[in-house]
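User: quick one - fold this with iron/sulfur cluster bound?
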Amino acid sequence: MPSPMIEVRSLRMYFPVGNNLFGKRRQLKAVDGVSFDLYPGETFGLVGESGCGKTTVGRALVRLYKPTDGQIIYQGTDIAPLDEKEVQPYRRRMQMIFQDPYASLNPRMTVSSIIAEPMKLQQAPQDAIDARVAELVEQVGLKKDHLNRYPHEFSGGQRQRIGIARALAMHPEFVVCDEPISALDVSIQAQVINMLEELQQQMGMTYLFVSHDLSMVRHISHRVGVMYLGHMVELAEVEELYSNMLHPYTQALMSAVPIADPDLAAQSRRIVLQGDVPQPIDPPPGCPFASRCRHCMPVCREALPGMREVSPGHYLACHLK
Ligand code: SF4
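Assistant: Sure. Structure tokens for the protein plus iron/sulfur cluster:
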């Protein structure tokens, strides 16, 4: 393994949500002590149910949020505590592709101005901007005559291509893809995924691919992390995770994935989770999954299981193993 490009250590992202009845400040613990590494050129899939904190991790890594605590060591520098001015040089190297291509593009700007905007902010010369815009339009499969049109004139897939071109304008090394295909028609999803894979090969970028679509994550990722209620509960190389999932939550999540082969589907058994999902505001002590886990033991209600390497490259946070 090469040296990590980004080392995430005990990342915490808490949001204030007012006071309780006794006047004590309450916090929503969206991310609560997540650690993992990202290696150059890899795609790291981050999965979990809605509200588990995966998007918040992505936003914190590109410093759209300033973390409450923890470290984000980007090529040797901890960028977590940097202020807005100090973080600017890193922002250029890290970009985000958003879930909703409709909401993420300014409707009053032409495609050309949208793609050129990050370069203009960096005061790049106009001829360099024009050349880069022409190059990007081709790379993302749009046409030159699209450049003077407005976002509403395009389909969802084309708008996502515009968003991708804008994200790639400054030659980023690291891109967070936040549910980049979930708002698109199924027929378009594979095209966008193939394009992201091709662009990664051409430009050598590292991706954090945030998604609830486990089949797509399996297709695109090299390693996968599973999050539950602000915690990373399991992490492994993709085939290891999908064939030897150890955490009871990962097992339940994977059991819900449709299986194309009718024989295998007949043998598989869906694990239906019982119990309530705890609130991320003032969550109870112990394992975050305890209220829904069929293997829950007394220790699980008291002690938070730490992440341990149970086999080479396979990490698990569970008292069972
Ligand atoms: Fe279940 Fe306990 Fe493991 Fe949590 S630590 S997943 S409650 S067995």
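One thing worth noting: The first helix runs from residue 54 to 61.
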